TrEMBL record:
<dbReference type="Pfam" id="PF01839">
    <property type="entry name" value="FG-GAP"/>
</dbReference>
<dbReference type="Pfam" id="PF13517">
    <property type="entry name" value="FG-GAP_3"/>
</dbReference>
<dbReference type="InterPro" id="IPR026444">
    <property type="entry name" value="Secre_tail"/>
</dbReference>
<keyword id="KW-0732">Signal</keyword>
<dbReference type="Pfam" id="PF18962">
    <property type="entry name" value="Por_Secre_tail"/>
</dbReference>
<dbReference type="InterPro" id="IPR028994">
    <property type="entry name" value="Integrin_alpha_N"/>
</dbReference>
<dbReference type="InterPro" id="IPR013517">
    <property type="entry name" value="FG-GAP"/>
</dbReference>
<protein>
    <submittedName>
        <fullName>T9SS type A sorting domain-containing protein</fullName>
    </submittedName>
</protein>
<feature type="domain" description="Secretion system C-terminal sorting">
    <location>
        <begin position="359"/>
        <end position="436"/>
    </location>
</feature>
Length: 437
């Protein structure tokens, strides 16, 4: 949030109508400052997303304000990065439970999509071409396919290069897919419903879990205490035939779900926040994707202790700069935010000796991994990412160990397009192309 290349932590304090920002500390990477709290800035902010919506290379805070207050946007300060301007609100004509950010109309600017809980509608706010970072005062509304809808995600599920909408259907137990219209990008076809395999979907994530190049759907099935996997059709991309395959969280209620490669095998794993946990039990679940049969997972997840109870949302990111995805969680009942450090030691097996450099996934969504093998005579690595105009949009330095180096590069604030990655190690200069979508 403050431009120092370290991931910070942001939490919405729903009942207090507040937002807290914890800054990653340079003296102890992965340790966080005490919270800077923006008190009484929003009306019942249930969930948030971080994204640069005005194109100034500083990530902003976007809030779903459930009690009819719409979407709230707090722009990052131009003069003091990591601090935020007063909230500006936009109506979604409902009570937004959650939201997603992405360029739905293919104009190069991130748009806001909010899911209204009670009436099961989606409100789409297109980013202004004339004043990026501002939006129409009232959203365009689409039926989501079910009342009491909960989770929402964006992803290109039919492979046409446009972001589609995936929503959890609430009490219907279904998942709705709204395809982006090819004739008019940024508008959506009616929802098509699919069985989530559970009783009350709470959250959804989109990603290619089985490695076939098509985006699949992962559902946190809420009251069922499981996740459901809907694999994208091989013959008709954008459809999800058959009932979801479910895997147990071993707990009472999967409230949230995210995807990320937590064990370094290049396959996305599943992380859940388990809400209705009993005292003293673990409240974060990890399903490790099968290396030999991608797209399949253990029957029951590994449960991790988040240091609290009733975990709401989870997020993944490399908070301490060691190349491994860590987990952040927010615990509702104990009013705490927690960091679970990844202690895996998989670097030596992740970089085959025959490979000098690897980038994956490519195309990248939200982030990609750079792996560089050991290079004789080089002790450090400098990485720069250039956009199509030749501007540096990311820069980081890292030591080169005897096994090599593994870096996670955050792309969630970059516009879709083709970027050039330049890696300088000793006397060696390497370049690669990476596609961001």
């Amino acid at each position: 949030m403050n431009g120092d290349s370290r991931l910070d932590l942001i939490a919405s304090i729903t009942a207090a109508n507040s937002v807290s920002v914890f800054i990653n500390q340079p003296s102890a990477s992965g340790a966080f400052s005490t919270a800077t709290t923006y008190a009484n800035v929003a009306s019942f902010p249930v969930r948030l997303v971080v994204k640069d919506v005005n194109g100034d290379a500083r990530p902003d805070i976007i809030l779903a304000m459930q009690q009819g207050a719409g979407v709230g946007i707090m722009l990052n300060s131009a003069t003091s990065p990591g601090t935020f301007l007063p909230l500006v609100s936009y109506a979604t004509l409902g009570d937004p439970r959650t939201l997603a950010i992405g360029d739905v109309n293919s104009d190069g600017r991130p748009d806001v999509v909010a899911l209204n809980l009670t009436d099961g509608t989606v409100g789409v706010l297109l980013n202004s071409a004339a004043a990026p970072g501002t939006f129409p005062k009232t959203a365009t509304i689409y039926p989501a396919g079910g009342a009491n809808s909960q989770g929402i995600a964006l992803g290109d599920v039919n492979g046409d290069g446009r972001l589609d909408l995936v929503v959890g259907g609430g009490g219907s137990g279904s998942v709705g897919v709204l395809l982006n219209r090819s004739a008019l990008p940024g508008t959506f076809a009616p929802a098509v419903s699919y069985d989530s395999g559970g009783s009350y979907p709470q959250d959804v994530a989109v990603g290619d879990v089985n490695g076939d190049g098509r985006a699949d759907i992962v559902v946190a099935t809420g009251n069922s205490g499981s996740v459901g996997i809907l694999l994208n059709s091989a013959t008709t991309p954008g459809t999800f035939p058959g009932k979801a395959t479910t895997y147990s969280t071993g707990d009472n209620g999967a409230y949230s779900v995210v995807l990320g490669d937590v064990n370094g095998d290049r396959h996305p794993d599943i992380v859940t926040g388990n809400y209705n946990t009993s005292a003293g039990t673990a409240s974060v679940g990890v399903f490790v994707n099968s290396e030999t049969s991608p797209g399949t997972f253990p029957a029951v997840c590994t449960n991790l202790d988040s240091g609290g109870t009733s975990t709401h949302d989870v997020a993944v990111g490399d908070v301490d700069g060691d190349g491994r995805l860590d987990i952040a969680a927010v615990n509702f009942a104990s009013s705490t935010a927690a960091i679970l450090r990844n202690k895996g030691t998989y670097l030596t097996t992740a970089v085959p000796s025959t490979a000098l450099v690897r980038l994956y996934p490519n195309p990248a969504h939200n982030q990609f991994t750079l792996e560089l093998a050991r290079m004789a005579g080089a002790a450090s690595l400098e990485v720069e990412l250039f956009n199509g105009l030749g501007q540096v949009v990311f820069r980081q330095q890292a030591p080169l160990s005897v096994e090599g180096t593994r870096l996670l590069v955050d792309t969630k604030d970059l516009l879709a397009g083709v970027y050039t990655l330049r890696m300088h190690a000793g006397t060696t200069l390497l370049t690669r192309r990476i596609v961001v979508h």
